Amino acid sequence: MENTQPEGGENNRDLEVAPALISVHPTQDSVAVAVGSDLRVFDLRGNCAVTLVDETGEAFHKDSIRAIRYGANGKLFVSSGDDKLVKVWSTDSWRCNASVCSEKRVSAVAVSNDGLYVCYADKFGVVWVVDLHGLDGNETLVNKKASPLLAHYCSIITSLEFSPDGRFIVTADRDFKIRVTVFPKKPLDGAHEIQSFCLGHTEFVSCLAFLFTVDYPQGFLVSGGGDSTVRLWDINPGTLLDTYEFGSKAGIVDYKGNEVSCSTVTDLCTIPGSNVVAVAVQSLQGILLVSCDLSSQTFGAVKVISNMGDSFIPTSLGCSSSVELLWTITGVSKPHGSNHNSLTCVRVLSGFKKTIPDAALPELTVVDDNEVPGAEKLLEKLQGSVTVEEEVFLAAAEAVKTSMCNLLIKKQYTTEKREFRKRGRNDKKTKH
Amino acid sequence: MLENEANPTISKSTGLPRKRFYRARAHSNPLSDSHFPVPISPCHVDYSLHYPQFFSSSGEVGSIKKVQFADVGCGFGGLLISLSTLFPETLMIGMELRDKVTEYVRERILALRTTNPGQYQNVSVVRTNSMKYIPNYFEKGQLTKMFFLFPDPHFKEKNHRRRVISPHLLDEYAYVLEVGGIIYTITDVEELGDWMKSCLENHPMFEALTEEELEADPAVKLLNTATEEGQKVARNEGQTFQAVYRRIAPSL
Prior knowledge:
The complex is a heterodimer of chains A (432) and B (252).
Chain A lengths: L20 E4 L5 E6 L2 E6 L4 E2 L15 E6 L5 E6 L3 E6 L5 E6 L4 E6 L5 E6 L3 E6 L15 E5 L5 E6 L5 E6 L3 E6 L11 E6 L5 E7 L8 E6 L3 E6 L4 E7 L19 E6 L5 E6 L5 E7 L4 E8 L10 E4 L5 E8 L10 E8 L14 E2 L8 H9 L8 H17 L6 H7 L11
Antiparallel strand pairs in A: 1-2, 2-3, 3-4, 5-6, 6-7, 7-8, 9-10, 10-11, 11-12, 13-14, 14-15, 15-16, 17-18, 18-19, 19-20, 21-22, 22-23, 23-24, 25-26, 26-27, 27-28
Chain B lengths: L46 H4 L1 H6 L9 E6 L5 H9 L4 E6 L2 H17 L7 E5 L2 H8 L5 E7 L17 H10 E11 L2 H13 L3 E3 L2 H6 L1 H8 L2 H8 L5 E7 L5
Parallel strand pairs in B: 1-2, 1-4, 2-3, 4-5
Antiparallel strand pairs in B: 5-7, 6-7
Helix pairs in contact in B: 3-9
């Protein structure tokens, strides 16, 4: 057996932190935040914090949550992560309706557009599907079994997305690949028909989102990756339509004032009904807005929204399909051995209009803490406290960055080092 | 390291590379991170380097030939060499993970091209992990034949996911094969033979060839005889287990 633990490439779980995540209900009935193993939900309709009810065998999450998502119709909410549990919640009662055990740690979740299937991806590259037929909110299904749907060959899947028409399921992995698979009529038998591969990223792909409007109901796929690019794809033939390379072009500077030449896209959020993509970038304070000319299938104007406060580097973005607000969050789970508690800060941006002229990107403003829907009560619930000291966020952003790089970037060794490790192999001996 | 002197790696009598200088381990871990260059997408592969004669004569863009046969895990290239003369107009490529073996096959092809002018121009080899990077080399429906001859059996159950024929990888092979394209598998390990057969049998996009079709297919005859591994099995009078399946359009 080869020694798989290379010197220098520390695989230390202590260094692993999970970024804070945010997800907004499709009609902004509620907002959910995950930080570490903590899932916090605020009900915007009732203007109150939600108490989750979990009566499944293993209640609540025990380890960092890595993926949260509302179903397209807003009835379901799914959360999952490092504790290998996939929990399906009803958004009416906020009871956990199903808890599925995964064999491996979960890296992404998605709900089919009809709300009947939950898919999750594990760190070995397998996407599993759970049938939710018969789940009507009252009884709890503990022993739901997942069936394998498709697999990327042993590559961590970073993002999972259904196409707007529900015909395809799109998966992105750390081996630079995006795979578009036909979502079958009987998903439990597996999804065998690959529509296309979207190839063009030169580093891991970190996130996916669909951009679609009334005129373009099929939509276009937008992907972000570790190669500091955002790419626009037509998934049917898998063609790369346009690439936006940020970094020096956008004049991104890190918090020390140095220009950032290469940085990872941490999250993408398309503004429903518009042609704008909001992009969160590691080391970028604020967010990047990229507009898309859908008729010519190219990226258009770009704007950096930097008035979000010093040292606010979002880790996750969320948006409902009805209300013109962009929700952003920054923060990390509590790193092992750190004396800070898990840190989060939520900021809400307003200023989106339904129709945005192609050339002009909207001027976004940060909604004052008191005017955020739910105001202080919401912030108290989602952030854990109303005010947060800012300086800790830089450390948090650094921690997320290191953790993500360790996870997704292949370790590079010098040729000498590699040869040295092969010295004992028979085929490497010069004479036999 | 070795090739510096009067090139002892090339046999004086045949002009072919000598295998003893290309000793390699029998197996390679397909799960490890790769350190060789991988093309970003199929259009980034410069096939004119692989098939100079085919690409120099046909200058027009429209007439560019595409690779149609892939020998996955080609080993020392025995099958490719036999196929080359059997289908002289078809471009074919071997894919091998072990660097030394790939180097041997490359030298072997170059030597054959020199000693047999005009022949063996349609074969080439790349070092890659085909389990990870098949879609980086071939477009949808590009291939007409794929060969998996004597793959690593990976007996332990925990290593079954390293097998080159597996239910999920077949999805990718179905993607690169055209409808009607054929997948050839053979092994001398009964357990693996059963595994490969059942994977193919249970996949909705593959159907078995009939006995008559197997009889009529010239490539089937090569499965047992052309490769170094096959000849070894024949020498030891071992049994082989083959499964040959056709890519079909899935029924909806």
